[in-house]
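pasting for ref
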Amino acid sequence: MFNRSEIMKRAWQDYKARYGNRPFKRSLFTWCLQIVWAELKQAIAYRVNPVAAKIADLRHEAEMLSYKPWRIDIMNRQREIEGQIASLLAA
């Protein structure tokens, strides 16, 4: 199902683009590989069930709002996201 060779190639490309000529660090490559796997899984989730994937994205966005600086009002955006999730669940 997954082309592991292509995944590794993409991870190496990502590693080289991010870290260039720095000495190899396994932890940095692991991070790049995790990102590539996450992107692939998200793409598959969108193909299988786009509504559920959109809801998951909206929930993730709502969770990330809590990390905004205190001076930014997040309540309006949070209500918008909750409304979008409710409309997707109702459909």
